[in-house]
Amino acid sequence: MKWLKRGGLALAAIIVLAFVVLATWEPFFARETVAPPERVYTAEIVRDEYGVPHILGKTDADVAFGVAVAHAQDDFATLQDVVAMAKGRYGAIAGEDGAQFDYIYHLLDARGTAEREYPKLPEDTRALFEAYASGLNQFAEANPDEVKLGNLFPVNGEDVAAGFALRQPFFFGLGNVIEPLVSGKPLRREFGPDIPGFPREVSPTMPASAPGEEAEPEDVARRARPVLPLGEDAGLLGSNAFAVAPEKSGGPTTLISNSHQPLRGGVAWYEFSVESEEGWHFTGANFPGSPFPFLGHNEHLGWTNTVNRPDMVDVYELVLNEDATAYRLDGEWRDLETEWVTLPVRMGPVVLPIRRAVHRSVHGPVIMREGADGAQEAFAIRYGGIGRIDQLDVYYRLNKATTLAEWQEQLARMAIPSTNFIYADERGNIAYVYNAAIPDRPEDVRANWRGVLPGDRSDLIWDGAVDYSEIPKLVNPDSGWIYNANNEPFTAAGEGSDLSPEDFSPVLGIERKQTNRSRRAYKLLSEAELLDRAALERIKYDMTYERANYVAVLWDSLERLEAEGELAQARDLLLGWDFTADNEGAADALALLMIRDWMSAEYQNKAEWPDTGEKLAEHVAHLKEHFGRIDPPMSELLRLRQGDADLPLDGGSDTLKASTTWEVDADGRLSLVHGDSFIQWAEWPADGGKVRSRSIQPFGAATTRPDSPHHTDQMELYAAKRLKPVHFWREDVLAHAKSRQTVTNAP
Fold it and tell me: Which of 456, 487, 557, 722 is the most exposed place for a label (fewest CB within 10 A)?
C-alpha cells in the first residue's frame, strides 16, 4: 500500500506542477519587445468640463506621448486588449474568442508586415509611434496593479503598427470571407441575396439596395473588450456623413460626422484634441491604439468617414499535391509555406498552449480545411492593402493638411485600404471620395472575380491598387450638398449631380446598394430648399423608415400572415404603424424588434428571409413576459445603460437617428451596444471666421472608469439629441479647463 500512497502523492505533485506551469508559462513564452529609443517627452493634458482631453506639447512626438497617457487614464483596460491583440496574445485575456484573433494575427502576418514595413515609414511618423508607445509604457509602469497580463509592456512603435496591420482589413469585410472558409460555410459575396421578393428594380435616381454593413449576431453581449469584426460581426460598421456648401446652408460650410460604431471596446471612438508648436492642431476621435485622430477637423479643413464595401478580397482555390505540402502554379509545384504557432487560450485560472499551423502561398494567407470527400482543400486569400502599413503616415499627413489639394494628395497614395471620406473646408469646398485600395485586377483576363478563382494561374494574381483617378469622387457638386449612409457612391449629391455607374469599370467591384438611412437622407436633402442648422438637425435625427426593400418585404409578409388571437392583434398593430421609431406610436416597440431581423437577413446576405409568424410570436412573448403587454412605450424597452445611469432611447436599427444593435438584459430591456456613437458637427463661417464645432459621446470620456465623474456625464445630452461645445482654440481650452496636468517620462 505504501507504493500506492507514494504514487498518489507523485500524481498529485505532477498535477500541481502542471497547474503551476499552465498558470504561469504564457508571459515567459511571449515575444520580448525592445523598448522604444530613450527620449524624454513632456506634454500637458488639459481637460474640460466633460473630461475631454486637449493635449499640448512642444513637438508632435510630445503630443503623441500625451495622447497615450490621457487615453490610458480614461480606458487603460481597452488599450491593453488592443496591445495584446497587436502581440498575438489576446487569447491569454479573452480565452477562445481572443484566440480567434490571435490566429488571424498570425494568418495575416501582422507582425511580419510591421517588421518589414515600419522601418520604411518617414522618421517623423515613426517618432510619433515611438512616443505613443512610450506613453503607454509610462502609464503601465506607474500603475502596475492595472496591468492585465505579464510581460505585456513595454511596447514599441512596431507593436502599434502591427495592430494597424491586423485590424484594418476587417473594416471592408475580410471577416466575411475568412469565417465561412474556416467553418466550411458557403461564401456570401454577391451584391444582392437570392431571396424571393428581394427588390432588384433600379430607378433612375435611387437604385435598389443590396446588403450593407450594420447587422450583428442576435446574442451580442455588452463588451468592455475590443471588437474586431469577424464573420457576421463584420457587419458592425456603419455611419452617416453630411457636407453642405455655404450657398446651400445660407451660412457656414458644414461637416457632420455621425459614426455608428460599438459604444465600447477596441473600435469605439475616443474624443480628444491635439496641439503642438510644430503645427499639429486637430480635434476629433480615434480608436484605441492610435496616436492621432482618424476623423475630425483642424483650423482649415475636416473630414469624416463611412464604411464602404467594394470587392477588396479575392479567393483562390489551390491545387494541392497528395500530401498537401505543395500547390501547383503555372504547371509547376511550389512548396506551401507552413509555420506552427502557439495560441494562448485562457481557461479559468490557466492558459492552455494550443498549436496551430499557419499556411501561405504566393497569393497570400491560405486556409486549409477538410472537404466533403475527406480530402484537404486549400483556399488562398488576397486583399486590398495586403502587406502595407503606410496608412500610418497618410493619416498623420491628413491631420496636418491645410488645403483640398494637400488632402487629396495624401488620399491619392491609396494607402488607406477602405472607407468613404466626406470633406469640407474653410474655403467652402465640399468633397466625397469613395476611398478604396481596390485590387488592380487585369481587365483583359476573363475571370469571375466575385467567385472562387483558380489558384494555379499566376495571371490572376494582381499586385497593388488601382490608380486614384479610377475610383469615384465628387468635388463641389451643383446641388451644394453631399452625403453618405453606407450606400453606393452613385447616390451622393442629388439628381443632376450624382456620378454614373456606367463611368466605372465593373471589375472594380463597387457595391450597388442603399440603406434605409440612405433613402431617407437622399429624399430629405433633395427636397430641402435650404440646409441650415435646423434643417440638418431634422435630417440627422430623422427616425422614419421608407416602405422599401427589406421593410417592404416584411410588411408585405405581415399582410399575408394568417393569425389568431394575440398574434392577430400584434399583426394588426404593426399594419397600422406609421413607420417612425419616435417613441410615440403603440407599435414602435414591436416594430423595433421585428425590423432588426429582416435588416439582419438582408445585410448579411442570408439565403432566406426569417419566418414572419415565428418571429412575431417570439417578440410578442418577450414583450408579454417583461411588460405584460404587446404595446409598451418603446422608451421603456430601448435603453442607454452605463453604471447607475439608465435612460430611454428612440430611433431604429436603420434610421438616421440610429439605435442599431443591443444586448437583451435580464429585465428584458434592450441595452444599446452599437448605433449613433461619436457625433461631431463642424462649421466654417462664410465670413472667414474661426471654425467652431460641437460633439457628443454616448457615455463620457472615461468609458471604463466607473469612479470617474466623466463615466456617464454625456449620457443625458446624448439621449436628448443635444451636442456639447468642442474647445478647439487655445483661449477656449484654457477658459474651460477643469484640470491641467503635466506628464513626462523624465527620470
Answer: 722
Number of helices (H), then strands (E), in the chain: 19, 27
Residue 130, H or E segment? helix 123-142
229 touches 649 (CB < 8 A) = no
Separation of alpha carbons 88 and 80, rounded Å: 12
| Contact in structure between 364 and 383 (CB atoms under 8 Å) | yes
Distance from C-alpha of 477 to C-alpha of 475, rounded to nearest angstrom = 6
Q: Do residues 676 and 540 lie in contact, with contact meaning Cβ atoms separated by under 8 Å?
A: no
Cell numbers for 490: 452613385
Q: Is 292 left (phi over 0), alpha (psi -120 to 50) or beta?
A: beta
Give the type of residue at 204: P
CA dihedral 548, 474, 304, 390 (to 10 degrees): 120
In the block, residue with C-alpha cell 491604439: 289
Question: Quick one: pLDDT at residue 237?
Answer: 57
Spatial contact of 282 and 482, defined as CB atoms under 8 Å apart: no
User: According to the model, what pLDDT value does residue 72 have?
Assistant: 98
- Tell me if 77 sits within 8 A of 69, measured CB to CB: no
Amino acid at 674: H
Residue 12's pLDDT is: 64
The residue with cell 450624382 is 498
The angle at the Cα of 745, spanning 740 to 747, to the nearest 5 degrees, equals 115
Grid coordinates in use for 703? 468609458
List C-alpha distances in Å: 293 to 48, 167, 182, 733: 18, 16, 34, 18
Helices within 354-426 (DSSP H only): 391-400, 404-411
* CA–CA dist 743, 363 (Å, integer): 46
The region, left, alpha or beta by phi > 0 then psi within -120 to 50, assigned to residue 611 is beta
| Pair 536, 679: CB distance under 8 Å | no
Question: Which amino acid is present at 179?
Answer: E
**C-beta separation of 48 from 727 below 8 A:** yes
Q: How far apart are CA 630 and CA 453, in angstroms?
A: 50
Query: How far is Cα 123 from Cα 390, in angstroms, rounded to an integer?
Result: 12
Q: Extract the runs of DSSP E, i.e. beta strands, from 263-306.
A: 270-276, 281-286, 295-297, 301-306
Q: What is the distance in angstroms between the CA of the first residue and the CA of the last residue of the chain?
A: 64
The total number of residues shown for the chain amounts to 747
CA dist., res. 625 & res. 167, Å (int): 40
Rounded Cα distance between 509 and 685, Å, is 39
Three cell numbers, residue 57:
506639447
Residue 78 vs residues 72, 266, 273, 474, 661: alpha-carbon distances, Å: 9, 6, 20, 37, 21
Axis-axis angle for helices 123-142, 60-86 (nearest 10): 70
- pLDDT beneath 50: ranges in the chain: 190-236
Question: Cell numbers at residue 292, please?
Answer: 492621432
Whether the pTM exceeds 0.85: the reply is yes
Could you state, in order of their start, the residue ranges of all structural domains in the chain? 1-30
| SS3 state at 564 | coil
Alpha carbons 135 and 153: distance in angstroms, whole number: 11
- Concatenated DSSP letters of 687-729: TS---EEEEE-SS-S-TT-TTSTTSSTTHHHHHTT--EE---S
For residues 677 and 260, is the Cβ–Cβ distance under 8 A? yes
Asked if 283 and 273 count as a contact pair (C-beta separation under 8 A), the reply is yes
DSSP 219: T
Give the cell for residue 122.
518617414
Please report the pLDDT score of residue 197 as a whole number. 32
Question: Quick one: pLDDT at residue 13?
Answer: 65
- Distant-in-sequence, close-in-space partners of 234: CB < 8 Å, separation ≥ 6: 170, 173, 174, 175, 176, 179
**Cell representation of residue 544:** 422614419
Q: What cell was used for 163?
A: 495592430
